[in-house]
Amino acid sequence: MNKGLLSVDEALEVLLAGARPVAEVEEVATLEATGRVLARAQVSGMDVPPMDNSAMDGYAVRSADVRAPDARLKVAQRIQAGAVGRVLEPATAARIFTGAPIPPGADAIVMQEFCAADGEFVVVKKVPEKEAWIRRRASDIARGAQILPAGIRLRPQDTGLAASVGIKALPLRRRVRLGLFFTGDELVMPGDPLPPGRIYNSNRFTLNGLAQIFGCEVRDYGIVPDSLEATRAVLRRAAAECDVIVTSGGVSVGDADFVKPAVEAEGSLLLWKIAMKPGRPLAFGTVGKAAFIGLPGNPVSSFVTFLIFVRPFLLKTQGMAQVMPRAIEARADFDWSEPDARREFLRVKSNAKGGLEIYPTQDSAVLTSTAWADGLVDNPPNHAIRKGDLVRYLPFSELYG
Ligand code: AMP
Ligand code: MG
What we know:
Elements: H1 8-17, E1 25-29, E2 42-43, E3 53-54, E4 58-61, E5 71-79, E6 92-96, E7 108-111, E8 115-118, E9 121-124, E10 134-135, E11 146-148, H2 156-164, E12 169-173, E13 177-183, E14 187-188, E15 199-200, H3 202-213, E16 217-224, H4 228-241, E17 244-248, H5 259-266, E18 267-273, E19 276-277, E20 281-287, E21 290-295, H6 299-318, E22 328-332, E23 343-350, E24 355-358, H7 368-372, E25 375-379, E26 390-395, H8 396-399
Helix pairs in contact: 1-6, 3-6, 4-5
């Protein structure tokens, strides 16, 4: 452990202990609920399927009538999906279609491929097994069973499942209001001319995009000059309007770094040096009722620290039950022979052979590495990697969930 540095896990523990799920719950139409966080577990009020029904187009029969191939049965009824049949009399069959209810008395469906229609009759060429192609009532979901747990981000199949038991609205956590601002006198917005010495405010796009991916209601206060008064003013406004404030830059302790004194003047702050690369400085505090997380300004650092720290903090604030990303064990198809003493988050990409390639430059100013990559390798301190080693891989697809 490096002197004076906090480990990622120590910082995460403090951060997560300070995250409170938003209390407000709102009823939202199920059709609008995808991507939102479910506040309460959902229970089915009905059986699914609600009745015994056919899994195939074919003929419903009494299996006792078809003890040998080529049984000839009178087709006494025709049952389409949405219709209801009558009792199936012995020695008769019902023409039936997928999803249609099984007529009382029938105990097997014969696929139409194994039947030959013959006027009013059907010749059943194959002996069916009892229960064949019958979907029994409640075989998927029994009335009273839990269908969705609390604290998940609803995916399309989840809202579909809720709808399948007739739920038309769901209790969702209110969206988290996330305030963003970007410190630095050097910053210029794309579209404006770039005077000498200035750079474009790329972090605004990266962090704003991340906030949108996580389903936040984003309040973007834009560029804030490197001055105590300007930083304090935007902090006051953001604290009144947001649940969480995330900023980039100005968290070092240089002369032009005003985040620390501004947050201290308006609220309270912990300023950490974290044993991670990229990253290092990170600020965590509160301003009024809002939580504050100050990320470093380097484009790769702010991106990675957002994913490692802001992401779980946000998920917890959103009311998610599972906030830590699930890593995958993956094979490194590269050597990493000079590891840092700090925990590293290396930009990597999976190849067609099921392994990982590394971006040649891991400099925290090289944003290209993040756009090239499809995930991060979470590499322990002082840990060299040799081709073929298994590493802890965090794909962006997991981190963006
Ligand atoms: P700072 O953390 O303010 O010392 O900034 C560290 C580095 O990140 C400096 O090179 C800044 O110019 C750069 N930087 C800070 N904010 C941004 C931003 N919003 N977009 C792109 N680069 C930034
Ligand atoms: Mg700065």
